[in-house]
Design goal:
About 40% of the residues lie in helices and about 15% in strands. By secondary structure, it is α/β, with parallel strands linked by helices. The protein has a domain at about 5-175 and about 215-240 and about 275-290: NAD(P)-binding Rossmann-like Domain (Rossmann fold), CATH 3.40.50. It starts with a strand and ends with a helix. It binds nicotinamide-adenine-dinucleotide and uridine-5'-diphosphate.
């Protein structure tokens, strides 16, 4: 039985990945410092003979024996990664460094959860993997954007210099059950506001776009990437459907039968104006494309948030 390490395994994506790995027959070691994650997300796995939780911060070295590593540990929502930006940069850089050293020691394959944020506020639209991005190195998003960029650099240098077997996925906005309702991301904010008939807060004029991928699709793509041979990436994983935040607000209001009104707040600095992945490479190399439409994914997510 293969033993797999999932860092950030108590978070939104990490907990779904742990579920998938356990269901597929792996032994899972879930490592998390519970900064944004929660034991609630993995409670159903506790006591499972093939699941183990370890409280650990990946800015510190880790000595365990594993066959594969998924490196997901890092706060992902802007308010959370901006809460302690120096810590975010350390998690991105030192965390990647420590996990790469572990992969080198164990001869384990390692996958990095990178992000569409490496494209910054993109001047090329939609974004292919060959686009090098437009990132402000000194802004309030930089701890995360530049952190994820240097992590990608480390991954490719460990690959070139030490022959570490790497995989890099660039994740575009992903949503679904187990998102932290208070983490400030747009999908969770809008759904929570709509369910409470509170004002829906649109930042800026609401014409900025994002592409939203349902969590099951994303986890499927990540798993395929880890297990494909002869392809390091980076590869975009996201749903190419593109929506303005105004459209998203209207869909959420309609789906929840909410009485909420839309209100406009100021746009945070460096907020990207557009986002949409080119997924040709994922289709070609992984045979992957998203299967869940926004309407269906939102339905499941709304049901989850109603139940909280
Ligand atoms: P999340 O905040 O729910 O999960 C992150 C997890 O990492 C949490 O459980 C948190 O406690 C843990 N963590 C944070 N710092 C840590 C540290 N120093 N040591 C150990 N654990 C630590 O976020 P998520 O949406 O599940 O994101 C998971 C990964 O995917 C992140 O690396 C994120 O950058 C990446 N990503 C997510 C999205 C998305 O839309 N969800 C988009 C792009 C990239
Ligand atoms: N956003 C918004 N209202 C909110 C939260 C976010 O209009 O209550 C906007 C935000 O300014 C951004 C988009 O929605 O343009 C996506 O924000 P999120 O924080 O989910 O992700 P990211 O900006 O990292 O893509």
């Amino acid at each position: 039985m293969q033993r797999v390490l999932v860092t950030g395994g108590a978070g939104f994506l990490g907990s779904h990945l742990c579920d998938k790995l356990i269901a597929t027959g792996y032994e899972v070691l879930c490592v998390d410092n519970l900064f944004t994650g929660s034991k609630e997300n993995i409670r159903h796995l506790s006591g499972h003979p093939h699941f183990e939780f370890m409280y650990h911060d990946i800015t510190e070295p880790l000595f365990v024996e594993v066959d594969q590593i998924y490196n997901l540990a890092c706060p992902a929502s802007p308010p959370h990664y901006q809460f302690d930006p120096i810590k975010t940069a350390k998690t991105c850089f030192l965390g990647a460094l420590n996990m790469l050293d572990l992969a080198k020691r164990c001869k384990a394959r390692i996958l990095q959860a990178s992000t569409s944020e490496v494209y910054g506020d993109p001047a090329v639209h939609p974004q292919p993997e060959t686009y090098h991005g437009n990132v402000n190195p000194i802004g309030i998003r930089s701890c995360y954007d530049e952190g994820k960029r240097i992590a990608e650099t480390l991954f490719f240098d460990y690959h070139r210099q030490h022959n570490v077997d790497i995989r890099v996925v660039r994740i575009f906005n992903t949503y679904g059950p187990r998102m932290n309702p208070e983490d400030g991301r747009v999908v969770s904010n809008f759904i929570m506001q709509a369910l409470h008939n509170e004002d829906i807060t649109i930042y800026g004029d609401g014409r900025q776009t994002r592409s939203f991928c349902y969590v099951d699709d994303l986890i499927d793509g990540m798993y395929r990437m880890m297990n494909v041979e002869g392809f390091t990436g980076p590869v975009n994983l996201g749903n190419p459907g593109e929506f303005t935040m105004l459209e998203l607000a209207e869909i959420v209001i309609a789906r929840t039968n909410s009485k909420s009104k839309i209100t406009f707040k100021s746009l945070p600095a460096d907020d990207p104006t557009q986002r949409k992945p080119v997924i040709t490479l994922a289709k070609e190399k992984l045979g992957w494309e998203p299967a869940v439409a926004l309407d269906d994914g939102l339905e499941k997510t709304i049901t989850y948030f109603r139940g909280l």
